[in-house]
């Protein structure tokens, strides 16, 4: 018989606590919380696994409501965790175990009276005294399981302040729990099918989509997985069509609209892409991702104008692309993607844009901090590579190229970087500059093929 699910509400990655000390929440989950849950005979499921572009969607609420057991880490007073805890306490009178790191956090006034269990951290931000703390968490969860088995005979002690303080507050309908478990298992199976279909290309993904049936019965996470799977195989029109068929609330999310704009632009519908992005900026304000994609729309228009010999129009479009990328970088200095694109276009501009020297070190710092944080991806290494090429630093470029090629996820990624390096090379050739090793890097990216796993 399958174990009951235990939902974990907590931050993820490394986050600073109120004292400024970095807490490695992934290690807290991996080494402390998840083992304790399994010790209690339950199966952990983590909250951040259900996040899509920062949006809490239907499956998240279902897990908060229908999981009979939960653990919430209140360290750093994370806004998402406290929102989720509020939802949980509104529908579950008991069985939510609260923990927090001792010394670096002070619980907010509203939750300070609650029965939360402290745990200690080592100097590197990972959990200390793991065995003893793990045993205490497991003991509390076992007590909750035993209380659940006696629920019909005697109601367990309430840990939700709403149920403690508000008389006759209504309980949740428990009859939906079995249906909920079935849907969780169905979603996991759908994601496995998509993972198997991606290497076989767009037609295999279309087949997987047809097998899903009515989208109203499919979890948002599965639909986003399908959406990004189409992106991975450069099936831009399939991405566009999928947004039209998504539930309205999911299609309206910032992430879905941004990726729709990306697909529209790649499909040659730049005007539509621009409208989508401008609507996002008007309704949600500037963001690095939105302006980064808008910069790409203008960049593509600039390249088209160059090919058509429209010199004056091309100059204006290049300036427009640079401004969009700079606005995106200024919206979030931590996101180097729009910054490196601004640097690259400033290098290409004839004469070179005077602001390049000012922004270059800021973008370089942003990407180096991201890499140092411990979870770099292809774009981080590609950014480092482009900056090294702009700076004519062969040694740094060679290492960044190796790292980037080893971390490619989707075929269009190295093609994009190769295209940027080609633009730099062509601009330099026009100025009588030759950087032979940069051309070799460009060719290596353009020739990238996924290694044969066999």
Per DSSP, the total helix count is: 20
Q: Residue share in helices?
A: 55-70%
Order of helices and strands: EEEHEHEHEEHHHHHHHHHHHHHHHHH
Q: What is the oligomeric state here?
A: single chain
The separation of the N and C termini measures 36 Å
CATH architecture of the domain at 5-172: 3-Layer(aba) Sandwich
Roughly how many Å is the radius of gyration? 25 Å
Strand order, largest beta sheet? 4-1-5-6-7
Derived from helix and strand composition plus strand pairing, the structural class reads alpha/beta
Strand content: 5-15%
- Classify the fold: give the CATH topology of the domain at 5-172: Rossmann fold
- Give the CATH class of the domain at 5-172: Alpha Beta
Outline the low-pLDDT stretches: 51-55, 171-177
* Largest sheet entry: 5 strands, parallel
Written description of the protein model:
Residues 51-55 and 171-177 have low confidence and may be disordered. Strand 5, helix 3 (79-91) and strand 6 form a beta-alpha-beta unit. The chain is of the alpha/beta class and 454 residues long. Strands 4-1-5-6-7 form a 5-stranded parallel sheet, sandwiched between helices. A two-stranded antiparallel sheet has the order 2-3. The protein is 61% helix and 7% strand. Helix 11 packs antiparallel against helix 12 (270-284) and helix 14 runs antiparallel to helix 15. Among the domains are: 5-172, Rossmann fold; 175-252. The radius of gyration is 25 Å and the shape is globular. The chain contains 20 helices and 7 strands. The chain starts with a strand and ends in an 8-residue tail after the last helix.
């Amino acid at each position: 018989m399958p174990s009951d699910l235990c939902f974990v509400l907590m931050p993820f990655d490394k986050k600073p606590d109120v004292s400024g000390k970095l807490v490695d929440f992934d290690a807290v989950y991996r080494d402390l919380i998840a083992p304790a849950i399994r010790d209690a005979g339950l199966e952990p499921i983590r909250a951040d696994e259900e996040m899509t572009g920062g949006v809490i969607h239907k499956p998240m609420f279902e897990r908060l409501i229908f999981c009979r057991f939960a653990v919430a880490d209140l360290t750093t007073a994370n806004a998402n965790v406290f929102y989720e805890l509020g939802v949980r306490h509104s529908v579950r009178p008991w069985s939510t175990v609260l923990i927090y790191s001792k010394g670096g956090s002070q619980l907010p006034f509203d939750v300070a009276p609650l029965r939360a269990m402290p745990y200690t951290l080592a100097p590197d931000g990972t959990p200390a005294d793991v065995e003893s703390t793990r045993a205490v968490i497991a003991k509390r969860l076992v007590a909750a399981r035993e209380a659940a088995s006696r629920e019909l005979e005697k109601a367990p002690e309430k840990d939700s302040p709403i149920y403690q303080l508000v008389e006759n507050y209504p309980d949740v309908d428990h009859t939906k729990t079995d249906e909920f478990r079935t849907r969780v298992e169905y979603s996991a199976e759908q994601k496995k099918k998509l993972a198997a279909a991606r290497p076989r290309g767009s037609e295999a993904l279309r087949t997987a989509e047809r097998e899903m049936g009515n989208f109203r019965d499919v979890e948002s996470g599965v639909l986003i997985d399908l959406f990004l799977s189409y992106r991975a195989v450069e099936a831009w029109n399939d991405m566009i069509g999928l947004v039209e068929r998504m539930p309205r609330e999911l299609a309206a999310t910032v992430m879905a609209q941004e990726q729709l704009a990306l697909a529209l632009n790649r499909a040659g519908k730049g005007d539509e892409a621009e409208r989508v992005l401008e609507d996002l900026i008007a309704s949600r304000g500037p963001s690095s991702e939105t302006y980064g994609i808008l910069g790409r729309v203008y960049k593509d228009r600039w390249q088209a104008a160059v090919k058509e010999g429209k010199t004056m129009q091309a100059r204006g479009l290049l300036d427009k692309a640079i401004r969009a990328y700079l606005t995106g970088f200024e919206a979030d200095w931590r996101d180097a993607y729009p910054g490196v694109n601004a640097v690259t276009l400033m290098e290409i501009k004839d004469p070179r844009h005077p602001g390049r020297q000012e922004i270059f070190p800021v973008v370089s710092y942003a990407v180096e901090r991201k890499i140092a944080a411990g979870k770099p991806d292809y774009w981080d290494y590609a950014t480092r590579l482009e900056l090294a090429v702009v700076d004519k630093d062969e040694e740094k470029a060679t290492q960044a190229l190796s790292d980037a090629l080893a971390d490619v996820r989707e075929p269009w990624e190295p093609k994009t970087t190769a295209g940027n390096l080609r633009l730099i090379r062509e601009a330099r050739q026009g100025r009588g500059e030759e950087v032979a090793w940069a051309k070799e890097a460009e060719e290596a990216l353009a020739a990238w093929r996924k290694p044969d796993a066999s």
